[in-house]
Amino acid sequence: MVQKVKRKVRRNWEKLAGYAAVTLLVVQLLLLVASWVIAAALPTANVRSLLSGEGIRWFFGSFAENLSNQLLLYLVIGSIAISFFRTSGLLSVIKSHRLVSYRQRFAFQMIVLELLLAVIVMMLLTMLPHAVLLSATGRLFPSSFSDSMMPIMAFMLSMVSVTYGVTSGKYGSVGDIIRGLVGGFTALPVILLLYVLGAELWFCFQYVFGAF
Q1: What does the radius of gyration of the chain's CA atoms come to, in whole angstroms?
Q2: Computed from CA positions of residues 167, 171, 173, 174, in that sequence, does the dihedral angle turn out positive or negative?
Q3: pTM confidence score
Q4: CA 132 to CA 148: how far, in whole Å?
Q5: Reduced to 3 DSSP states, what percent helix, strand and coil does the chain have, rounded to the nearest 5?
Q6: How many CA atoms within 13 Å lie on the side-chain side of 168?
Q7: 32 close to 50: Cβ distance less than 8 angstroms
Q8: Residues of the chain with pLDDT under 70
Q9: CB count, 10 Å around CB of 13?
């Protein structure tokens, strides 16, 4: 029964993602045509055509730069953390609220200790006077700490997940860890596709209507 529900949820998610991808592609094509029509019909308007020589050069020349931003980084490192969290067995333990074997109990104690040590280290780096992760004015927000909160949380989740997986026996070798990383978050390719389509559409809107 549970497997049927999971398969149904996955099919619905894939269908929704497919509709979203098609919608983004259609809007992108409409923007291409609309930018050309408006630029030709209203030459005095502050609208640039994506089908002009300048527009085509911009599209191809800035494609990689448009996609290279913090959101892409967060998607990648977040997917790594989620993959380890799901395949290490830690997610199942949290859901069931049960530690069956001695190794599982020992592994859970290990990650609690790890989290405690990590919190202490971050407090030393942020709470003390003139701490290194504070801003030049001594503020926590904005600061080096606030700029790196997402990577820090992803690293901590990955760390405790791998520790739990290795200590509990879920990961028996380095190969198991790599397989856990690859197979833990299967929705990532779809999310990356939507990111590429959505990000490029957003920057195309900015280009057409003179935001650059």
Answers
A1: 23
A2: negative
A3: 0.82
A4: 13
A5: 75, 0, 25
A6: 24
A7: yes
A8: 1-3, 5-6, 184, 211-212
A9: 12
